[in-house]
Amino acid sequence: MEAPILITGGAQRIGLALARHFIAANVPLIVTYRTRHNSVEELAAQGVKCIQVDFNEPNAIDTLVHQVSEYTPALRAIVHNASSWDCEKLNPNHDALFDDMMRIHAKVPYLLNMALAPLLQASQEVTDIIHITDYVAEKGSPKHIAYAASKAALDNLSRSFAAKYAPDIKVNSVSPSLIIFNEHDDEAYKAKTLKKSLMGIEPGCKEVIASIELLLNSNYITGRTLAVDGGRHLK
Predict the structure, then answer these.
(1) Sign of CA dihedral 115, 116, 120, 123
(2) Opening angle at CA 219, ends 217 and 221, nearest 5
(3) Please, which residues have CB within 8 angstroms of residue 34's CB and are 6 or more apart in sequence?
(4) How far apart (Å, rounded) are the C-alpha atoms in residues 198 and 78?
(5) Rounded Cα–Cα distance for residues 170 and 130 (Å)
(6) What proportions of the chain, in percent to the nearest 5, are helix, strand and coil?
(7) CA–CA separation, 86 vs 18, rounded Å?
(8) What amino acid positions are annotated as catalytic residues?
(9) What confidence tens digit (pLDDT) does each residue in 40-95 have?
(10) Residues contacting residue 98 through CB under 8 Å, at least 6 positions apart
(11) For the whole model, what pTM was predicted?
């Protein structure tokens, strides 16, 4: 069997769009999900290996590594997409909030990269680890302080793992700002947000997918962060 790509958080939004993209290209997939949305049934029906995992559970990493290792002897890539948008305003338990953000955005990718490296190295080609970070990792965010710090930690992991695993595994980050709005976002919020970038558009998941494809198809890019922010850093 061709070595599959593992996508964490592959049942909704960007992760789901990426999974559908790879399905259309006949790329074998493993996706993790926390909540069993209808999309999980859709993916499973198309041959995707879907693994339920709650990364807040104590044995989640060991269980996931075991299931992935039982399913395949090699991996083509890992895309760390699982994320949480919790913030200080919505979660007054700042102690727990910080730990939760660091766990999902930094500790989980760190442990998976360490544990699954042998499967990536077992592939007969150069393989990839791709971290989905965030524009705020560079700038910070007064409304999402713990979130921004954890995404910055994830971005930094890209450089450390790139040096550790070269030349067998390339490790990079994709750093998006606005990609797609949420269903509950009102028109005033949308207008305000669109003005934050030079391009002024809601680009859609295809921009992140194109960035990931660029990294997967490269034989030379590693330890880098690919910004997908519409020129927002210049505003």
Answers:
(1) positive
(2) 95
(3) 9, 11, 52, 53, 54, 55, 82
(4) 31
(5) 8
(6) 45, 15, 40
(7) 23
(8) 147
(9) 999 999 999 999 999 999 999 999 999 999 999 999 999 999 999 999 999 999 99
(10) 146, 149
(11) 0.96
